[in-house]
Amino acid sequence: MSAVQKVLIIGGGIAGMSLAIRLGQSGIKTDLIDRDLKWRAVGTGITITGPTFRAFQELGIESEVRSKGRSNA
Ligand SMILES: Cc1cc2nc3c(=O)[nH]c(=O)nc-3n(C[C@H](O)[C@H](O)[C@H](O)COP(=O)(O)OP(=O)(O)OC[C@H]3O[C@@H](n4cnc5c(N)ncnc54)[C@H](O)[C@@H]3O)c2cc1C
């Protein structure tokens, strides 16, 4: 068992959310807080390139992300 059992993640951007997924997969509980009370997405879309897709693959969310967007690959 990990020495760390619960983590507070400050910031719910892609880094914080990815960390929450990864820690959750390791059995570590997380609380995630963001200073934006509405936790809005900024902008209207995002272009995702290879390194990000590889990170999504590692996290096990790549096919779900692809299903929500439009892919040229
Ligand atoms: C206009 C624009 C367009 C972009 N387009 C693309 C794109 O098409 N493709 C791409 O790959 N990247 C794009 N980027 C870059 C991408 O948005 C960033 O690389 C990415 O969001 C960084 O993620 P992050 O989790 O590190 O930080 P952020 O997404 O900035 O998330 C940080 C979070 O922490 C919260 N926070 C900050 N300080 C505190 C605090 N003290 N307490 C609590 N919460 C806090 C913030 O509210 C925020 O939700 C774009 C960026 C901008 C500005």
How would you sum up this structure, described in words?
By secondary structure, this protein is of the alpha+beta class. The protein contains three helices and two strands. The chain has helices at 14-25, 50-59, 62-68; strands at 6-10, 29-33. Strands 1-2 form a two-stranded parallel sheet. The longest helix has 12 residues, at 14-25. The structure holds flavin-adenine dinucleotide.
Question: Quick summary of this structure?
Answer:
The protein is an alpha+beta fold and about 70 residues long. It has helices at about 15-25, 50-60, 60-70; strands spanning about 5-10, 30-35.
The total number of structural domains is 1
Strand order of the largest sheet: 1-2
Regions with little confidence, pLDDT below 50 for 5+ residues: none
- Main β-sheet, in a few words? 2 strands, parallel
> Strand percentage, roughly?
5-15%
Principal-axis shape:
flat
Number of strands: 2
SSE sequence, one letter per element: EHEHH
Overall pLDDT, averaged? 92
What compounds are bound to the protein?
A: flavin-adenine dinucleotide
Radius of gyration: 14 Å
